[in-house]
Amino acid sequence: MFKKGTKLYSIANNKCPRCNEGDFFEEKSIFKFKNLMKLNENCDHCDLKYMMEPSFYYGAMYVNYGITVGIAIITFVLAKFVIGLSLNNSFFSIIGVLILLTPVTIRLARLLWINLFVNYDKKFAVKKK
């Protein structure tokens, strides 16, 4: 499932969707907020241009919205019904979880978005000489 050549491998490992070799984001760490959203311009392995067209990643905002709504629902159910928090405390827990996971969800949304449009191609995975 997470083998090289799958979309899940590309998403989980911050790799180019076409060759699964080059890094997608310049900075691997999500804790360096200054460079959190900086993409490499091209894949250093297969030369795929990550910014395919101007405003390409606007669609990733919708993906991010879906991810955050899902996280909010799961957090509410866990806080309210499993842990037994009050309604107000449940909403505070949602806010806290969403703030903590914002760097993860933003990057995940961009990786998911480009993987919708670019497929793995074996001929690009061969090492450059």
Biggest sheet character = none
Counting DSSP H or I runs of 4 or more residues, the number of helices is: 4
Total number of strands: 0
Estimated radius of gyration: 17 Å
The helix/strand series, from N terminus to C terminus, equals HHHH
The amount of helix comes to: 40-55%
Global geometry: elongated
Poorly predicted tracts of residues: none
- Sheet/helix structural class: mainly alpha
Q: Strand fraction band?
A: under 5%
Task: Look at the structure and give the mean pLDDT.
Answer: 91
The domain tally reads 1
Our measurement of the CA-to-CA distance between the termini, rounded to an integer number of angstroms, reads 29 Å
Task: Provide an overview of this structure.
With 129 residues, the chain is an all-alpha fold. The protein has one domain. 52% of the residues lie in helices and 0% in strands. The chain is built from 4 helices and no strands. The model has no long low-confidence stretch (mean pLDDT 91).
Question: Can you describe this structure in just a few lines?
Answer:
With 129 residues, this protein is mostly helical.
List the SSEs and their pairings:
Elements: H1 7-13, H2 59-83, H3 87-117, H4 122-125
